Sequence to fold (456 residues):
Amino acid sequence: MNKIKIHFLGAAGTVTGSKFYLETPEQNILVDCGMFQGLKELREINWQPLPIDVSKVDCVLLTHGHLDHTGYLPRLVKEGFHGEIIGTSPTLAITAIILRDSAKIHMEEAERANEEAYSKHRPAIPYYTLEEAEKTLGMFKHAEKDEWLFLSENIRFRFRYNGHIIGATFIELELFGKLFVFSGDVGRREDPLLYSPDRPEWADYLFLESTYGNKLHPEEKVGDILSSLIAKTINEGGNLIIPSFAVERLQTLMYLLWTLYKENKIPNIPIFIDSPMGNNVLSVFEAYPQWHKLSLKEYRAMCDHFNIITSYGDTWKTIDNPRPKVVIAGSGMVTGGRVLTYLKQLVDRDATTVLLVGYQAEGTRGRQLLEGAHEIKLFGKYIPVKAEIHHLESLSAHADQGELLHWLKEVKNIPENTFLIHGEPSALDAFRVKIKDSLGWKVQVPHLQEVLELTI
Fold:
């Protein structure tokens, strides 16, 4: 008999901070290594050392490259990790882009906080530096999808295609003959750019994301909504600002807007892409065409249609440009990035429209705007919100409840336990009841820092 200890170090009872640590007799494995985002009490956990001996972690397996699945990696290295960080090639390419970008933002924010003295920390220090991020990238090891790889005599794993973002996978981890399945973030069945997710056929222990465990995405006519908002922007001589995640959401928006233009459903309004990270992600789409639906010819024609901003100086030129325009800028939940500069200058104008796309976590500015906040805090100052706020939920890269249940339907056995992760409490509880009632499975909702011991 073998004892396995599972530490729920993140994404337990909340959506972000994905970290699941498995102590086994042969290998100690960390599945994902993300940062907490959103509520202040969660973000503060990012600054605390992990409650494990990090030097004993043998490897990290990454489901995909998003910050809430990879953003803690440089801190892990700082705390003494010296093993391998394993992911698919596009996942590691995305992770490298995100960690470098994140490090630059942390360094810039610390510098600005020190100059303007709005941080309570004296001096403010970056969460990690570019040098620390680069050291982390040196530990990357690429793995092919669908290929079983052994970590030790009785432990092997493989990555399987999962939609969501380019490179994303779910992980099948076999420990001493038992199959542990980590869903990562499950993608949509009808994604404009990505293929439908593969589905697991067996799971002894299942770790299942529940971001939309209590919801079905609305049937929205996305093209009509975008066309209508662009017409309004032109008529009012204003700005349509779309905060967007740099990975996947940005490329999806570009594809939808380019298609609308080709079909003469929108005029040739200037559309600015202001996301240095997003520009780098576009190169990943070019490098890994087998991971998405676009041909190289379509991809290049699409990119040529947009005004892609590369310098911060051009950000200000775009803001000062009086013409009606569309600006797509990071970040998707308005937690950082170039979109903050646009909102600081333009969110207090009646002719501005802000279109939020996808999930807005608790404690983020995106959620505040969604819930009708009359002001938001940007760079230490409160700015009145006079812009009109809209929300497109159907562009989410996460499967909804129906799609998650469909994802489970290929599982031929009844798992010994299903752990619901990556969800806010209301979503977790609703999904727990749904799975129990519809499938009859044993379902558990672990809490943050919970440690479970299994004998297998």
Notes: The chain has 14 helices and 22 strands. The mean pLDDT is 95.
